[in-house]
Amino acid sequence: MAQETPNHTQTVAGWAAYDSSGKIDPFIFKRRENGVNDVTIEILYCGICHTDLHFATNDWGITMYPCVPGHEITGVVVKVGSNVRKFSVGDRVGIGYLAASCLKCEYCASSQENYCDQLQPTYNGVFWDGSITYGGYSKMIVADHRYVVRIPDSLPMDSAAPLLCAGITVFTPFKDNQLLNSPRKKIGIVGLGGLGHVAVKFGKAFGHHVTVISTSLSKEAEAKQRLGADEFIISTSADQMKAARRSLDFILDTVSAKHSLGPVLELLKVNGILTIVGAPDAPLDLPALPLILGKRTVKGSTTGGILETQEMMDLCGKHNITSDIETVTPDQINHAMDRLARNDVRYRFVIDIAGKTSN
Predict the structure, then answer these.
(1) In the structure, what pLDDT confidence band is assigned to residue 358 with cuts at 50, 70 and 90?
(2) What CATH code would you report for 11-165+304-352?
(3) What is the DSSP string of 89-158?
(4) What CA–CA distance (Å, rounded) separates 321 from 312?
(5) Which pLDDT belongs to residue 265?
(6) Rounded CA gap, 313 and 88, in Å?
(7) Where does the signal peptide begin and end (predicted)?
């Protein structure tokens, strides 16, 4: 692999982590020329995902420095390759987690590129030409058009950016469990953070009865009055958890801290499904009896494929669903990262790369 190839001739200004201190500093680098299957995008906004923090500090031991984070990218197409038909100059577009895949395996063939064994991410990956991928903390990006989605005109570009990660992460379980057009179900959302608040919005938009399950009593008003949740359960209250036993058809667990799944499973009806999208550092507690006695299912889910991401974006445009954000300028990235590490954000940070904040 190489940071660049001879085809990397476009000089770009960005922001990168240079070592495991995680500090983000200005970085000048080169992008490849726009190829026949590529679109070149002027980046307007890029969300800050918790994954960015992990890569910046090399928490997982796989970071290739310098690392330009960012996989929640929105911008405008400024150049298209000769093979590109679905995008034109001036189109509003987005890029999420995926930069490349094999395009030949069963998962790529079924629009599940996110499960391809040869998947390469938008940053800290290795592209087809052997170069290291650099993400959206930068002024522009060149992307294969097959991994780009269109942003509906009705959505603000800043608050749409986190949908490319947080949004698709919680949308996929709704679709996998036939909750987009089903009769009204009782669903639970565990955790009201960057993922959970978008999940509540999806649940209400799709016509379901939504219960937020949280350890924080202070979030009840936010969940009910502003996000529209129907009920709120304090998970540390034995009385509340007992009263809600066997009341939910489906639960989406968005919490990234270690916790026991036993009490959560008891909230499900017989045959209920619990999908996990949070990724705690330590193994989760999964007792057998709540599974066996309730004939319940526990499954995991990650981001979605490109067609699914486009479907999500279109539904967000239809239902006016966006992420709740705080915008920051590039010189505030480190401060935002510090706050993110303390979970001090409601609910996602977005970098105003081009200085065009709509808020």
Answers:
(1) very low
(2) 3.90.180.10
(3) TT-EEEE-SEEE--SSSHHHHTT-GGG-TT-EESSSSB-TTSBBP--SSBSEEEEEGGG-EEPPTTS-HH
(4) 10
(5) 97
(6) 18
(7) none
